[in-house]
């Protein structure tokens, strides 16, 4: 069985998709920890930030975050980007 995030990317698991392109997908977290809680992730399976070597992909994800903040009407007030890496870094699902 694929990880929950791969299931969302493939469409096997329903999710409120906010954005997607060839490289990344963004969707609302089902257990939000903030008033606006959107997960932005690569479409390609990556278990941890420690595995990412594609700097352009990280930049793409940040750009999508900016666009979504504007879309959600929160860019003027400010927003926070968080990347959890590993268990000690707060990553719950690999």
Describe the fold and architecture.
A 3-stranded antiparallel beta sheet has the order 1-2-3, with helices on one face. The longest helix has 17 residues, at 55-71. The protein is α+β, with helices and mostly antiparallel strands and 94 residues long. 26% of the residues lie in helices and 15% in strands. The mean pLDDT is 90.
Q: Which key phrases capture this entry?
A:
about 90 residues; alpha+beta; 3-stranded antiparallel sheet; 2 helices; 3 strands
Topology at a glance:
Layout: H1 4-10, E1 17-20, E2 24-28, E3 38-42, H2 55-71
Concise summary:
Strand 1 (17-20) and strand 2 (24-28) form a beta hairpin. The protein has helices at residues 4-10, 55-71, and strands at 17-20, 24-28, 38-42.
């Amino acid at each position: 069985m694929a990880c929950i995030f791969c299931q969302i990317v493939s469409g096997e698991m329903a999710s409120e998709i906010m954005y997607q392109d060839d490289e990344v997908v963004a969707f609302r977290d089902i257990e939000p920890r903030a008033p606006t809680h959107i997960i932005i992730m690569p479409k390609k399976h990556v278990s941890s930030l420690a595995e990412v070597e594609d700097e352009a992909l990280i930049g793409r994800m940040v750009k999508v975050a900016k666009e979504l903040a504007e879309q959600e009407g929160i860019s003027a007030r400010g927003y926070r980007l968080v990347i959890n890496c590993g268990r000690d870094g707060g990553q719950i699902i690999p």
